[in-house]
């Protein structure tokens, strides 16, 4: 019997799963999930993400059980233990081949190479698949043969070269003849340092992910380009946690767009095509992780910014973390993330730029704080976004682009609805006063004065960047 072993990681679904489909086409399948909590925490993942991961494993185990595919479970401390843990299962169940979908941060790349080598030495074939991207990193390059460091030309070439086959959905396995192997009982998560936001905010599983996609396409996608920057309305897809752990695939999203948009991705309905671009951003950052591994070592992509004189300001950092900077939009956004494990994308840019430019605090501190709280925390996207805001990364904002939080608030939350929701102390103020409450109102509502003046902070940031030698 040609037993196939599927190693699940951040691809927690049975539909459109390249590794699972390939394994099922070859013979009876057993699946394995290696839980690596210590390693995840060392990578910055907090309780929200790890809890969501655990719930996702429960959901995919239930789906696999419906196909008579047992899901085994092992706890390991570190990625370095993965080769032996997988080989032990392979030997125990006379596995003929291992199948898994690649991940692209540097430590994950090294782990996967070590697994492939260990299986090769054991004379067992190991197959890796580029499931999370349309183009394998290294196959979409500039005319000079380099990885793209700017998004727009990357996206243009992506649209030009992407094929029907690349976006075709993989087969869902048919139920197989039951095996004598039974699924493992999944252990409960140990008590983590911080409290998770819980299942009510983000129910796990591909069924929920599919419901999110369907509702987005039906009710919000046509207005996405207009509403995605307005935090007081549900204008985004809210799919980022499900994409981060593979409870839905980029191909499923692209196929859904094409069915709504006459078969097109690059033209047609502007709401849909704008969202497609956001999906391509996710792929771009995964290519960057492979092509420029220094970003996986917490180094800036723009090498000259290594010398930037960041400020040591623990008090300012703590005020930012706790949502008490005195800038209502920044504070409301930070409180939203701590309470729900998610933050609106426009506000991720605003808060990241406030920390890195207004306070001139090292972006890596903010990147780490986001990872500790975000249920959709994903290294490639989080790192890319933070480096963009801090003007240290690929395709980054020019160093002189410094969002004025008050202007951003008036533009994207004109009536202060989002602010009132997350800063109830300001909800009784007139709408226009919520963006920057006058001093005489601050004492009445128990809200702090701004911890930094926008104009002064802007000049300080400009001087710091101008001092860099290229």
TrEMBL record:
It comes from Halomonas colorata. Its EC number is 4.1.99.3. Transmembrane segments: none annotated. Pfam families: DNA_photolyase, FAD_binding_7. Belongs to the DNA photolyase class-1 family. GO terms for molecular function: deoxyribodipyrimidine photo-lyase activity. Its cofactor is FAD; (6R)-5,10-methylene-5,6,7,8-tetrahydrofolate. It is an enzyme of class 4 (lyase). PANTHER family: CRYPTOCHROME, CRYPTOCHROME CIRCADIAN CLOCK 5 ISOFORM X1. This is Deoxyribodipyrimidine photo-lyase. NCBIfam families: PRK10674.1. InterPro entries: Crypto/Photolyase_FAD-like_sf, Crypto/Photolyase_N_sf, Cryptochr/Photolyase_FAD-bd, Cryptochrome/DNA_photolyase_1, DNA_photolyase_1_CS_C, DNA_photolyase_N, Rossmann-like_a/b/a_fold. Residues 2-134 form the Photolyase/cryptochrome alpha/beta domain. Keywords: Chromophore, FAD, Flavoprotein, Lyase. PROSITE patterns: DNA_PHOTOLYASES_1_1, PHR_CRY_ALPHA_BETA.
